[in-house]
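Let's do one together. I've listed all components of the complex below, 514 residues spread over four lines.
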Amino acid sequence: MEYKKQIEQLIVDFRTNYLSSVSIDFVIFGFHDGQLKVLLLRWKETDKWCLPGGRVRHEENLETAAYRSLQERTGLSEIFLEQFHTFGDVLRYTHFSKEETMGTLGLPQDVLDGFPGRDVSVGYYALVEFARVTPTPDLFTDECQWWDIDQIPLLLFDHNAMITLALKTLRRQLSYQPIGYNLLPEKFTMPDLQQLYETILGQTLDRRNFQKRILGYDILDRLDERKTGGAHKAPYLYRFNKEKYEKALKGEVLFVG
Amino acid sequence: MEYKKQIEQLIVDFRTNYLSSVSIDFVIFGFHDGQLKVLLLRWKETDKWCLPGGRVRHEENLETAAYRSLQERTGLSEIFLEQFHTFGDVLRYTHFSKEETMGTLGLPQDVLDGFPGRDVSVGYYALVEFARVTPTPDLFTDECQWWDIDQIPLLLFDHNAMITLALKTLRRQLSYQPIGYNLLPEKFTMPDLQQLYETILGQTLDRRNFQKRILGYDILDRLDERKTGGAHKAPYLYRFNKEKYEKALKGEVLFVG
DNA sequence: TTTTAATGCGTAGTTTCAACACAATGATAC
DNA sequence: GTATCATTGTGTTGAAACTACGCATTAAAA
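Okay, and this is what the predicted structure of the assembly comes out as:
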């Protein structure tokens, strides 16, 4: 009963404070154990999974709304967040009717009357440091969990397509911008970084050429420390030079005929 | 009076048939006289210009809506159209208040009551063959005209920023995908194509290297004809090989470590 | 102390890219 | 009809980037 009230209040809140027809969906990439992972939510009382999302307040910028929603879901504020596509197919809604949704939640169907039947959803992808995230489910979902990128189940709505496109965009981004600042701990080794790249690209890279290329970007500071503990030769630790990193992000290398 | 009725009807139509909070804006690129041009609309009874736009019907896909709206504005159906960014800043609306808008149109302010104060706008850019376009103004605008890309005035809303980003995206697109199919007439010469590239990129290119690179893509068929009439040596005519062209569009060359 | 396997640093071969040379050609001027 | 001119078609060369691979070094384990 308490939950029902909460939901109803939430819906009233939506109606008064948020834009209708527009939603935000997140593909949140994390990196752990040499695996690229995506944060998914499990829909209340079902075994169906979907991407975390958000909505936009009436007097709120889209980007602000994205950062706010993401923080609600992960607890992180300083994150790499980038819009990659806006999805607006009506078919997005084949899996779940409005009635089903309400039925699942045990709510009368009329609470959603007047709501538009579909949203246009702005897709963002985020890169976060796995360890720092505190996944938090919302009122519509029971659970919040990391999934290996190659073991994503069939998701609700068009969320599988979203992940695919987000990954494609991320891979392309890798080719003209440095990545890693938001995915690795502060200090890391070259093999760590290479594993990250290989995982994102889905292919192996030559160790020596990779190092040359990355160092060529001039965005890393090599520390005097080495990472001990593992077997064999101890690798140097590196740290992103934030200044140079930001500079590289802005001064995007454009291909010119 | 007649016009006022039309507008009111239009607004009723919007309320019942279209998504609120979502709009579409177009940066329509054309190419003529060695100049890259953009199609702009002049707002009714003012000297202020803006981008053409559209809205999404309740049961219509976003992309479908984009194609439909674009056809209404240009008369063209088979065009290159690509989403490049979604804009959602509240500041987008600084130039024009709801009241001003209504005032300009000579309408009572209450016709827009209940309308959300702002939209999230999905930006598309289009490439069209200049000569085939029939610019058509809508009910809110008096005039529809091509503007040289480097002579765009201060536009309404955030439309200047939209053009800037659209151009940036177009230029990047040029580096990993062929372009020209929708901007040039069926038969064209290599210098024609080069001029198009130079205009889009805003820089000159080496004639010989350009030819080598383009032919290397293997998307052109050289015809037996030559373009006569001009002074000096007659250049060959080329035509895009649609099959190969489409293939090149899909099989995007991804940078790999 | 020896072995092992990963790391740090370096080199050679290849491909790609940019800069430039020169002959061919179609209209124009005479 | 012929010479001139600007432009086109094709090729070459040197530099730079990229790929593939060699080898000595080193921390932990045997």
